[in-house]
Amino acid sequence: MTTREETLEYLEKLLIRFGQIVPFPNQADTRNVTLDSICQATQNAIFSLKLASELENVDFYHRNGWNDFSPDDFKDVVYNYLGFIKDALYNRVFMAVETHLRTIAKHYDDSKNTCLLNENIRSTFHNLMTNAKSPLKGEIKTEEISLFCIYLYLRNTQHNFGKQTKKNQSVNFIHDESMFFDSPILLELKEGKFNELDTKRMIYLIEQVVLIIQKIDSRIPASEFIEHPLVSAGYNNQC
After folding, report:
1. For the chain, which terminal residue's Cβ has fewer other Cβ atoms within 10 angstroms, N or C?
2. Where would I find the H helices in 113-198?
């Protein structure tokens, strides 16, 4: 099991990696809001883990009325808590990425009648990257497409208590700028099997998906403005 300290180390590296990305100057643009919200989610996961130092202190439980707790319970409590934080981070980043892709696709559908937006997020991603009508169409590696598909399928396993109900998905991939691995790493989901991606690989997957998003964003002209849907709800006016 990945420890709390190891998870903290991975998340702090991830936040450093995101901090190396130059933010888009217009705060209302989806390129800025999406990166900001992903950084916030990562930071919140870090805070949650730092605040969880009491999880292996039996006095903490006794002070809060759980008098039957003993050190024998720590393993299960820590395992469940780390799993909760991991799922929360993954889902929050997934929401940000999905909204980002849909916002970009809708922008071009409205302005150029491109028909890129699809109810299926995988189809929307594919349309943005490969459809002849897409202004963002360009080179993308097969491994990057496979990696993004694993990212989507991993989210779907949460509907089945972590089990992959679709066909096998795998990719052997490494990015030159990864903070986590310096040689190709296998990511796979096996049909009928429970997800076995450890915390480090899951965080690596998030890192790589954000880098793919940056590739998409780099193809949008800097002069073009695409407002993020949360801006009208006051995202940039948070206290």
Report:
1. C
2. 121-130, 142-156
